[in-house]
Amino acid sequence: MLSRLRHFRAAYLLVGSSALVFWVISFWLPLPEYLAAISSEKYANYEIPLKIFVALFLVFAILNLVTAALFATRINPTAKFYLAVIPAGLLLLGPFIIAIPVSQQFPDRNYFEVFQAFYRLLRFTKVDTFALALIITLLAVALNVYAGMLVRRTQDADRISDKLRNRYLIYTAIVALLAGGFTAANVINSTYRWLDRAACQKYIARELPQLDSEIPPFLSDIMLYGQSAGTSQLQSAFITFSMVSRQYYELLNASDDEIIIKDLESQVANAKNTVSQLCSEFATD
User: Fold this and answer.
1) What is the number of other CB atoms lying within 10 angstroms of the CB of residue 201?
2) Which of 231, 228, 191, 234 is nearest to 29 (CA)?
3) 12 to each of 36, 176, 186, 257, how far by Cα in Å?
4) Beta carbons within 10 angstroms of residue 280's beta carbon
């Protein structure tokens, strides 16, 4: 009976591992849009490594769920062990191997510099998201290895009592609910990031006004970018930039009070800098 219970527990670990990896995958959602972006001429030198990287994580997440289902069956424990450990090894070593051809294009750069820059192309543009992506990858690998070791130490899955079976069905539902909730939260966050990215790309592509008559439409567009952004932080930054800039523009033409004008000018510069800093996260497509 203990053997079968360990197989169930190992399956839960695999589901948790897939849920963790989905956090990384969520940075590429919507996937067709990201794949189209890295297929452009801009990324021609890195297209194949990037797509292999994406495929590695997608296959790992899906294969883990399939393997978790197989862990509930009575197939050979050794086969289950390899089904858990081999994908973990590929996930651990894969990113470093995939980055090697990219690093060879920059012989004057340290490999780990190129490795981090490669992750920037995968939308992990901030130090904290880059570090978290690595940590989550290691955690997923560790969960898979631990799951494999759990079944490796057991014999063939034996029968369990109806009472325990019902209890573990409840546990399975709870694990599925938690993993589903975590995945749903990542999908929602990815939608916010997508909206932020779209707003920032419109802002970056927007030409600066050259004439006084072009300033009001420009500031109206900035306000629209803020209203269409996903996160409240970027929304507030765009809207503040638009409102303070409008006040500065109107006062510049209606007042000679240099102290107030200088203060508003400083506020405009700070607001623009805040927008630039927030949009720097979306420097890659």
Assistant:
1) 14
2) 191
3) 34, 9, 19, 68
4) 11
Contact 52, 98 (CB under 8 A): yes
Residue type present at position 31: L
pTM: 0.87
How far is it, in rounded angstroms, from Cα 17 to Cα 19?
A: 5
> Which of 111, 162, 147, 200 is CA-nearest to residue 20?
147
Specify the pLDDT at position 236.
93
Q: What CA–CA distance (Å, rounded) separates 233 from 60?
A: 33
42 in Cβ contact with 285 (< 8 Å): yes
Half-sphere exposure of residue 258, counting CA atoms within 13 Å on the CB side?
0
Tokens describing residue 272: 């623009």
Q: How far apart are CA 170 and CA 176, in angstroms?
A: 10
pLDDT at 1: 45
In the chain, alpha helices (H)? 2-25, 31-38, 47-71, 77-103, 111-121, 127-152, 162-205, 215-228, 232-252, 258-279
Give tens-digit pLDDT for 182-210: 999 999 999 999 999 999 999 988 888 88
Helix 127-152 × helix 111-121 angle, to 10°: 90
Tokens for 214, please give them.
């072009």
Measured from the Cβ of residue 150, the count of other Cβ atoms closer than 10 Å reads 23
Segments of the chain with pLDDT less than 50: 1
Read off the tokens for 98: 């995939």
Report the distance separating Cα 44 and Cα 38, nearest Å.
8
Tell me how far CA of residue 5 lies from CA of 63, 145, 150, 156, 217, in angstroms: 21, 17, 10, 11, 65
CB 67 within 8 A of CB 84: yes
| 194, 29 Cβ separation under 8 angstroms | yes
The burial of 178, by beta-carbon neighbours within 10 Å (0-12 exposed, 13-18 middle, 19 or more buried), is given as: middle
